[in-house]
Amino acid sequence: MKAPCVRVARERGEETRRALADADLVAEDVEIDADDGVLYIPVTDPDAVPEKFEVVSRDLPERSTPEMPADILGYDPSLERLGDVVILDEDDPERAREIADAVVESALPVETVLDRASKIKGEQRVRDWDLLAGDSTETVHREYGCEFLLDLDEVYFSPRLATERHRVTEQIESGERVFDMFAGVGPFAVPAAKRGATVVGTDVNERAIEYFRENAERNGVADRVTAIAGDVRDVAADYEGWADRIVMNLPHSADEFLDAAVRIAGDDCLIHFYDIQHEDDPFAPGEAAIRAAAQPAYEVTVENRHEVRSYAPHELNVCLDVRLAASE
Fold first, then answer.
1. In terms of residue numbers, what domain contains 123?
2. What is the superkingdom listed in this entry's lineage (predicted)?
3. Rounded to 5°, angle at Cα 272 from 270 and 275
4. 177 and 267 share one domain
């Protein structure tokens, strides 16, 4: 089976495998191969492999033993990985139990299996869970070279947004001032700080802010991060005209915070505004709301209209990248 892999001298093989595993990049459906003092370690995403490693393509043997949940079940279950936690979304308790047992029996390095028991609810943006295996809802998630400690029972976090977070943070340049209005445990803010930005993040969930501070320490950026527990509208006056970039990832109600965003925005500021709208016209409502809040003090330019993912039948999670330039 042709697969992308990291080519490394055998004596550095375990060190390299561990580094790739820490970044959740080791592919699990093919074997590590060896040839003439060289190891070939299969990876899931060659674009995410750090530049210090050599990535090549090679025919690797598929795993011959039934170690994955699909091998045990006879079908491919729908599940998400978050650190050493597997997340299910099953309405049938018997099917959820069947999948959880297969996950535990498989070769997946998993400690906990959770099934979603409610939708996201309340100001804290948390949900209820059925604990099917393990004894802790806390885990460490690795994403594009950063690691995040979090407790799914106490904070909101979606691994499905990893690509979108990377899209935004890759745009950030050293020296920028970035304000994350709904920062959670820091998945936008910490990578922004790693790129050299000065970052302020707020969240009404105090436990999320505690994890945010811990994650800033873990990733070596605590000196460039200010984490504030509270409603961003209560601190906007303290950062009036401050931001070069604002992240507004609260898609059901970000429009309610646009006045605060406009107050925080500097003379030239890019806003990443997240929204959920009907597929027939997913961008117009957000654009209209931004213009109503920002004009005439700012000239408003929509630089990018981006579909993040399908959220529900006929509903899309979208992002508007909008430039605010102070009117003369």
1. 69-136
2. Archaea
3. 145
4. yes
Classify residue 26 by its DSSP letter. Answer: B
Which residues sit opposite 201 in a β-bridge? 180, 227
Strands (E), 20-122: 33-35, 38-42, 54-59, 80-82, 85-88, 112-116
DSSP structural state of residue 257 = G
- pTM of this structure: 0.78
Cβ neighbours around 162 below 10 Å, total? 16
Could you tell me the CATH number of the domain that includes residue 280? 3.40.50.150
Instruction: Give the Cα separation of 169 and 96 in Å (integer).
Output: 36
**Which residues, at least 6 apart from 100, have a Cβ–Cβ distance to it below 8 Å?**
86, 88, 113, 115, 132, 133
Q: Do the bridges between strand 54-59 and strand 80-82 make them parallel or antiparallel, or are there none, so unpaired?
A: unpaired
**Residue range 229-238: average pLDDT?**
96
* 116, two tokens: 């979603």
b/e code 179-188 from CB counts within 10 Å (16+ = b): bbbbbbbbbb
What is the reported pLDDT for 205?
A: 95
Q: What is the pLDDT of residue 230?
A: 96
- Higher pLDDT among residues 67 and 131, named by residue: 131
Note whether 75 and 55 are same-domain residues: no
Which CATH number characterizes residue 28's domain? 3.30.70.2580
Q: What is the mean pLDDT of residues 7-21?
A: 87
